[in-house]
Structure formats: C-alpha cells, structure tokens
Amino acid sequence: MRDYTEITERLKNLAVPIERIGTAHNYPIHQIRLTASTYTQRRVLITGGMHGDEPAGVEAVLQFLERNNTALLKKFSFTIIPCINPYGYVHDTRETHNGIDINRSFETDDIVEVMLVKQALGQTQFSLAIDFHEDYDATGFYLYEGKRDEKYIGPDLATAAKGVGPIDPEDPGEDAPDLAEGVYKVANAWGTQGLAPYLLHFHSEHVIISETPTVWQLEQRVALHLKILDTALNATSEREV
C-alpha cells in the first residue's frame, strides 16, 4: 500500500492554495489553481491518478507543482487535480473501492470521484487538458490527442518525447485512428465515457492523454509526461490569442 499522506504533505509544502473538492472512500481529493490573474492567460487542466496503479502521473503532477513555473504563469492559468482516484493509488489498483474504472464512467453521475471532478470543473472552458496515464503492456510511450479544429500537434509532441524514450511499436487499438507514429486520435466511438473525450465535448478545445510504459523507471516516466506537457504548452502559447 502507498501512503497517500505523502501526497498531502507535499501539497501542503507548496506556497499555493489547496482546495479539497471532496472526499472519496475516506480520502480527500485535492485541487490546485495557479494563476497570475491576467486576462490573456489560457486555462489549462492537468490531471493524474485516474487509475491507481499508474503512479507516474501523480508524481509528474507533483513535480510540475514543485518546480518554478513563473514564466508559464504569464501565459497560462492552471487547474490541477493530482490524484483523482486516491483509493486506487493507495491500494495499487486501477479501479475505485467499488471496482469502478473511473475512465469509463463519465457518462454517469453516481460515481463519487466522477461527480466531484464534474462539480469542480463547473462550466470552466480550457484551451488544453492533459491526463497522465501508464500502460503495463507497452514498451514505449504513445499518446492520444483530440482537437476541435483538428490542427493536431501530436507529431511534434512525439518528436520531442523521443528524447526521453522510444515510441511503443504496438498499436493500442481501441478504434483510435493514427495521426502519426505513436499518436492516436481520440475516437468518436469512445463517446464521453472517458475523461479526455468528456472534456473535449464539454470543457476543452484540445485534449491529450499521455501514456508511458510501466516497465520504464519512474523518473523516466515522469520525465516523459512533463516533456509532453511542456511541448504542448509551448505550442499552445505560440498560437494567436
């Protein structure tokens, strides 16, 4: 079992306000908002810990929060949920306490973790949302991208990420069309059950799912997530306001 209080303590050590959006199975779910209060900022959502047995996403979020993001805050405001599934994180299981895969449940309102995320998002619209994941069967990284204007940046993300590790040679399937090597389109066939397609439909013009192979060391997986995030932020900042 992992110690969830370590996450809470690391968050408390940050010089930023932390909001408890609710409690799921006796574990608090936290949200952090980073902003410099300028009107030109684009809103970005970062999430980790959807599946409890994928700890690299949680660690990537924490390392992002712990680094100096002063320059980014001139361009972006961030809404960050470090661990959506704390019970799964503690017990090293993909599902919740009730055996539910949260990432297949966003078309329902009776799953506590889903309900809390939806309530926290409210009516907020984002320029970019990125969800960190892992794949136990993969040997390299890959990613999914959804973009309303279909001006995809996935190939650039994959090129940058190759500096961290190789692309997975296997197609993950799931009815996701290829956009480039290691880059797959968020598929219409998914509906809005998963967080990323739900966000693309209701909250964000651009979504990314970053997938790292669990066989990599933790720090390499974290570095891959952060490389994809930083490359996406750079591409977003270069677009006209």
Set out the fold topology.
Elements: H1 4-12, E1 18-24, E2 27-34, E3 42-47, H2 55-66, E4 76-81, H3 86-91, H4 112-121, E5 128-135, E6 142-147, H5 154-161, E7 178-180, E8 183-185, H6 195-202, E9 206-213, H7 218-238
Parallel strand pairs: 3-4, 3-5, 5-9, 6-8
Antiparallel strand pairs: 1-2, 2-4, 6-9, 7-8
Helix pairs in contact: 2-7, 5-7
In short:
Helix content is 31%, strand content 23%. It has helices spanning 4-12, 55-66, 86-91, 112-121, 154-161, 195-202, 218-238; strands at 18-24, 27-34, 42-47, 76-81, 128-135, 142-147, 178-180, 183-185, 206-213. The mean pLDDT is 94.
Spell the H/E element sequence.
Answer: HEEEHEHHEEHEEHEH
Overall mean pLDDT? 94
Uncertain ranges: none
Rg calc: 16 Å
Structural class: alpha/beta
Strand content: 15-25%
Q: How do the strands line up in the largest sheet?
A: 1-2-4-3-5-9-6-8-7
Number of strands: 9
Question: What does the overall shape look like?
Answer: globular
